[in-house]
Amino acid sequence: MRSVRVCVLAVTALALTACSSVVGGQKSGDSKGLVVYTSSGPEVTAPIVKAFEKAHPDIKVTLTAISGTGPLMSRIQGEKANPLGDVAWGGSIENYKAVAGKGIWAPAELGQDKHMVATDPKHQWHATDLLYQAIAVNTDRVKNPADYPKTMKDLADPKWKKEGGVGFANPRSSGTGYSVLAAMVSKYGWDYVDKFLPNAKVTDSSDAMFKGVRNGEFPVAFINEDLGNAWVKAKAPLKLVYPTDVVSNQIGAAAVIKDAPHTANAKTFVDYLMSAKGQQVMSDAVGRRSARTDLPAPAGLAEGKSLHLAKSPEEFVSEQPKVLDTFDSASGAK
After folding, report:
1. H or E element: which one contains 277?
2. HSE value, Cβ hemisphere, 13 Å, CA-based, for 179
3. pLDDT one-digit tens code per residue, 226-246
4. Fewest beta carbons within 10 Å, which of 60, 185, 193, 223?
5. To the nearest 10°, the Cα dihedral for 319, 74, 24, 48?
6. What does the CA dihedral 24, 28, 34, 37 come to, rounded to 10 degrees?
7. Helix axis angle, 206-214 relative to 225-233, nearest 10°?
8. What proportion of the chain, given as a percentage, has pLDDT over 90?
9. Local confidence band at 25 (pLDDT 50, 70, 90 cut-offs)
10. Which three-class secondary structure state does DSSP give residue 50?
């Protein structure tokens, strides 16, 4: 026998009939939905979402791509009074920490957190991947390997301005750019940034920086190693160089948006991102390092222990607005 519940609400002379219930923090009328805001490209998101939907056929994912981690965070803050998304995915943990006091993340104690290289004591952000940045050299533009930059410091050489500049994503809009800036400052201080910026070709997004060096717009640029490795395998005219002095890096993250329409599904999705199965997809299909402590790096990537990995200065975590204002001042941005 089928049971039906009808809820009737009378408002003065008008009768409004509605039926609704809340299960697990989400509306039962749309319990299969999940809206994911992401600053990552389809080469990252598509294989993982496909695997997730196969593992959870009852949940349908809608991806909303937002170009840049800065705009991603701004979008979520702008919708705080009426959230339309359920999950934020992409960017580094520093980006999530920087807005942790804005009241936009829903604390979520998830089972997979204990397996990750970093965890948030307040359970607001969750580690999803490890991402190192190499220097990409366009071999059509720089033909002699002896001329390749070997270190981060090399990129401050004025010769690179003459050669066409160094592609560099604006750290105000790009999580990757912010990580590279942090590495520069951690190793050489802001004086180095002042020397580097005259050589920089600042792009509005990481994607523009990556594609710019691949297409020969810049002779060199920073690139996420997984994407660079994939393009090298596809015969793009690129050579990846891990700087011997300091390598920028980030721990990628995701978070459940506070008061999300589909909170239960959001938690399921983020937990899957951290699971052994989800992380294996990240490694095998995306070619990106796992943020789990029990999975090795994908084939073709440098051994992490051999690299001089940067550690973000405390100011880059706790004083992001001040850091970005300092960058704007150094770069002459308005």
Report:
1. helix 276-281
2. 28
3. 999 999 999 999 999 999 999
4. 60
5. -90
6. -80
7. 30
8. 81
9. very low
10. helix
Rounded-to-integer distance, Cα 282 and Cα 51, Å: 10
Q: Are 171 and 91 in contact (CB under 8 A)?
A: no
Q: 155: exposed, middle or buried (C-beta count within 10 Å: 0-12, 13-18, 19+)? A: buried
Q: Extract the tokens encoding 146.
A: 């002896």
> 147 in helix, strand or coil?
helix
pTM over 0.85: no
3-state secondary structure 135-146: EEEECCCCCCHH
DSSP per position, 240-276: EE--SS-B-EEEEEEEEBTT-TBHHHHHHHHHHHHSH
Tell me the C-alpha distance between 70 and 66, whole Å.
9
Instruction: Provide the pairing of β-strand 87-92 with 33-38.
Output: parallel
SS3 (DSSP) at 159 = helix
Which residues are within 8 A (CB) of 284 and not within 5 positions of it... i.e. 6 or more apart?
298
Burial class (CB in 10 A: 0-12, 13-18, 19+), 256: buried
Beta bridge partners of 126: 119, 254
Residue written as tokens 């397996």? Answer: 115
Residue found by looking up tokens 């390598």 in the block? 247
Q: Which pairing describes strands 26-27 and 200-203: parallel, antiparallel, or unpaired?
A: unpaired
